[in-house]
């Protein structure tokens, strides 16, 4: 009986296994509380009551962790979108709108971290490095939408280049990201307007009717720049 009690005590006192998300959460909280990135894995792990081995079981470096945070933002966005039972029936335009609306809602929930991450290093290449995984995800998502669109066209002359338009979707993401960072409107209403106008412009280009949409979008940007 004594042995059984000891075994039970040992099982119940066993340390909870650290998950990948636990490490991400600890890192995000660290940089917000200290207003700087940790200088070493050793100090970061010690302060968060984990071992270096536990950190390295999930990430090879802080750079890898920072990239994974952006990958997680994308994954969570798509998870939320697919929880909507109607999503599968959405048009490609509606799917793209849903993606951007949801993505920036998620960024808003983590705005302090995102602003820190993008403003910490003024060197553009350093900023872009952490977004490499997100870039791949966004381009793949756009390619899927374009492939679906092309399959419904009866002639090859009406098909669109997957590589060109997927790159365009990424440029759109960067534009919206910068717009959102500088947006000081209540509830980020102007960002929602920018999302709607930019997505509609892209899909109007797909449908060979770009002029009115491009002019409308241009007027919007001009007004925002001058206000």
What is the straight-line distance between the termini?
78 Å
Characterize the largest beta sheet: strand count, sense, and whether it forms a barrel: none
Q: What structural class do you assign from the helix and strand content?
A: mainly alpha
How many individual domains? 2
Shape: globular
Q: What is the H/E order?
A: HHHHHHHHHHHH
Number of helices: 12
Q: Proportion of β residues? A: under 5%
The residue fraction in helices comes out at: over 70%
Query: How many strand units?
Result: 0
Question: In terms of quaternary structure, what is this?
Answer: single chain
Radius of gyration: 22 Å
The overall pLDDT, averaged over residues, is: 83
Uncertain segments are: 1-5, 7-13, 154-159
Describe this structure in words.
This protein folds into 2 domains: 17-60; 62-226. The model is unreliable at 1-5, 7-13 and 154-159 (pLDDT under 50). α6 (92-109) packs antiparallel against α11 and α11 (189-206) packs antiparallel against α12 (211-226). It contains 12 helices and no strands. The chain has helices at 2-12, 20-34, 41-47, 52-56, 62-83, 92-109, 111-119, 124-129, 132-151, 162-182, 189-206, 211-226. The protein is mostly helical.
